[in-house]
Write a structure and sequence with these properties.
With 490 residues, the protein is of the alpha/beta class. Helix content is 30%, strand content 21%. It has helices at 4-15, 36-47, 87-95, 144-151, 173-179, 184-193, 204-218, 256-266, 307-310, 321-329, 347-350, 385-392, 396-410, 443-448, 471-489, and strands at 26-32, 52-56, 67-70, 73-76, 82-83, 100-102, 110-114, 117-119, 248-251, 270-272, 276-281, 286-290, 295-303, 314-316, 332-333, 335-342, 355-358, 364-368, 377-384, 418-425, 436-437, 458-460. The strands form 5 sheets. Strands 1, 2, 10, 11, 12, 13, 14 and 22 form an 8-stranded mixed sheet that branches.
Length: 490
Amino acid sequence: MITRRTFVASSVAASLVPRMALAASRTDVVVIGAGLSGMNTAMMLREQGYKVVVLEADSRVGGRVETVDTPNGPVDVGASQVGRGYARVIDMCQKLNLRLIPEDRDLLTFGGYMQGQWVDAKTWEANPLNLTVGEERKIPPMMMGSMLASRYNPLKEVDEWLDPKFAEYDISLHELMRRKGHSAAAIALAAHSAPGISIHETSVLRMWQEETRGRIDRKLAPEAEPGKRLHPFGEVNDHNLIDGLAMISNIEGGASKLTQAMGAQLGDAVQLGKRVARIAMTNSGATVTCTDGSAVSSRFVVSAIPFTMLREVEITGSANPVARRAITTMPYANTARMYLAIERPFWKEDGLPPSFSTDGPMGMFWAVDNHTGEGRHRAMIVLVGKVAEAIASKGRPEAEAFLLEELYRMRPAARGLVQVSTYKDWQRDPLQKGCSFSLAPGDVNAYGRDMVKPWQVMHFAGEHTRRLDIGMEAAMESGERVAIEILGRA
């Protein structure tokens, strides 16, 4: 695991190595992408005296860190959560004088809407709609996928998902459940709640990596017990402060405060509106050309953009079939969310659960506790996987109208009490084309272990290159790893 001690040791060693004299028209490192990972790499290398240029296609820094100002206050539509174990993120916030506050997104009680009927997780075991068998019957339908994926997770350490001894598990959740003898009904329910893209299209090794790392922050036992958690999404925060931090914290004013402060530290090293079209590499350097015709030559290149975007860049250099395959084929999961303000708690009028999941097109409705039980509340409609993709194809105005009407159809009491704050569909973001990386069954064995290795002078950062961490910390981890790699090669 990369530690600050190993980084400092690498930095000191690198500072003793004479640096190659570069022509004035050249820079030491070109970083492509001004998200958390790219800017963390740039800041670390600048601290060691390297000349760094960061090329960002967007008109803002941040990547999938984005805070939207709405009439109902700032809303983080991308990365937002800072766990107690996010050492790099916490350190950067302290360095940049940003305040961390306990996340206030405790969700109200969950129910389910299946086959046109409301179901209660507490009585699901005896519900006539429950066609599962044996111990499966005790698992709430909205938790079937996540609980069974967790039940069979053999990983104890956060990096074991890459260990070849677990190569046999580079399979889909559907295949895992089939091998374990689960009923067709359980598999069908899991299809509505499986982590990742779908029950068929995500490797359980990828699921287990995130579950194993999340277990550390949650301090849960290695195996989840059916029926113990009625909240399947980890949204119940422990607000008790340890060293000033809740279990989950947010950055006061929104997560974009962090990336904006990092951008300010880098100053004019960050160039906005610079979309990269071509990377031409040799063993001693590279030239990066943008769509506007400008070009920068450097000793090293760091790709810190999603592979959905890197695959649109022309890359010339030595043959690298592993990197080519990863860049070309890595799938990306999607999340689309509609953020709502609720004038008053309509669930008190209809007597139904405030939050719920469905087997229909709307996905999930999350009602956020305002801790008074009365008055204005926040809520989210959360769309994932194929459902999100289908609704996204409608475009934002139609998607918003469709989702509201679907909510009113199931919850007539909500009509007239819901205001849309904002809507974000990451798959339709032209500079992201997805919310987070995924790995299909077989991808860990095919390229997952080796895809982060440098390709001639190009190094790979971004949450899709995570080895140990998750979320914002994974992006920071990858940036730190790349900085160490470049220092080691200097």
